[in-house]
Structures are given as structure tokens and as C-alpha cells.
């Protein structure tokens, strides 16, 4: 099945899984891109785990030739199903969706926490490199830093915000909400990629409404990347 998605620029297609592999506690899922465009770094895709009712939103982690790669943390039944897929199986994918990072900035600095590093290998691909600060709860989780060679790594209890440079940078951040709040306290103009459960991915179900700066927003439409200020 192929076809246009429910929003402009998105494509819905059943694609072939080309493989999976562990990176620390996470899994890198690779699928054939088919007719799906990778979009803007920071946008997301809805991956529909076989046998489950609802799809799961995932950032594009990397583009390798004709493959799209997604870094997944198996924290529930749906994500466990995605991580268990084998090469040759089929997966329904919709995307790209939402708003990504504005990379037309003079001094980009990647700041990621835990599975929040997922969109940044693709960000670095498009930027052609650049500085990155990554935070993880353990050395095992920090194995995922291999996806961003040269990144500075902080392990709990060290906070990524303690590694932010004194000079102003154009911060691109993704991670748990407390980390994002701490980042925007230090860098008010940061671009922050927020997370919320999503059922559709294009604003129809209102399942991803979050309050940001006192305003209720459908994260899949307004975000997932929002300016902090």
C-alpha cells in the first residue's frame, strides 16, 4: 500500500524492514525508505506496530542510502514489537509530520538526553557535523553516543546543562521535560523538541495536547520542535 498522507508532504506506505540492531539498551530499526522522504530533522513519523491498534511517533534518527533509521527505547508493548521486527517483515509508516528544527542558525549546539538523542544523528548529517552535548543515566545508555562521534557525554548525576558553554549558542535540544526546562532557563532562545503520546500524528485526535508557556497546543501540529521563548 502506498499513497499520500493526510497532511501535505507526508506519505503513507507499507515498507520493508531491512534490519534491527542494539545500541546500548536501545534498538536501531532500519526500513527501506520506498517513496517516503526523510523531511526536516526533528520531524517525526508514525510507525504502526503489527498487531497493535495505534501507531507510535518516532523521530528519524539517520538516513543511510535508501534506508530510514529509527532509534527506539522498548518501554511498552508497541515499542517492544517494533524492536522485535525482523528483516523482510513489513511496517506501515506515515510521515514526515510536524515541525522540525530550524538549522539555518550560525552556531548550532546539539543537546540531547537519553532517548532524546534520537533525532540528532540526522541533524548532524544535515549540518555536516558540529558540537554536541549528550546526557545519559548510565554508561550502558551512553553507548548510543556512538551515533554522534565526538559528542561530549555527561553521566548521571552530572547534568548536561553543567556542560553548556558560557558563550551564546543556538541550542537544539531534545530529552526529558526536566532537562528541557533546565536548558531553556540557560538558553531562552533554544529550540526544544517536546514529547507527548500521539494517536494520529496530524491534529485530528487531540491526544497530544500539552501546555507550553501557559498555552495548550497540539504538539503534533505546533511542534514537536518549539522555540523556548
Write the layout of secondary structure elements.
Layout lengths: L1 E3 L6 E13 L2 E7 L11 E5 L7 E4 L2 E3 L2 E6 L4 H7 L6 E8 L10 E6 L6 H8 L4 E5 L15 E4 L14 E5 L2 H10 L4 E3 L15 E4 L2 E4 H4 L2 E3 L2
Parallel strand pairs: 9-10, 9-12, 10-11, 12-13
Antiparallel strand pairs: 1-2, 2-3, 2-8, 3-7, 4-5, 4-8, 6-7, 13-16, 14-15
Question: Summed up, what is this model?
Answer:
With 229 residues, this protein is mainly β.
Would you kindly provide a written description of the structure presented here, covering whatever features stand out?
The protein has 229 residues and is mainly beta. It has a domain at 2-97: Translation factors (Elongation Factor Tu (Ef-tu), domain 3, Beta Barrel), CATH 2.40.30. Helices cover 13% and strands 36% of the residues. The chain is built from four helices and 16 strands. It has helices at 77-83, 120-127, 177-186, 219-222; strands spanning 2-4, 11-23, 26-32, 44-48, 56-59, 62-64, 67-72, 90-97, 108-113, 132-136, 152-155, 170-174, 191-193, 209-212, 215-218, 225-227. The strands form three sheets. Strands 1, 2, 3, 4, 5, 6, 7 and 8 form an eight-stranded antiparallel sheet that branches. It has a six-stranded mixed sheet with strand order 11-10-9-12-13-16, sandwiched between helices. It has a two-stranded antiparallel sheet with strand order 14-15. The radius of gyration is 17 Å and the shape is globular. The mean pLDDT is 91.
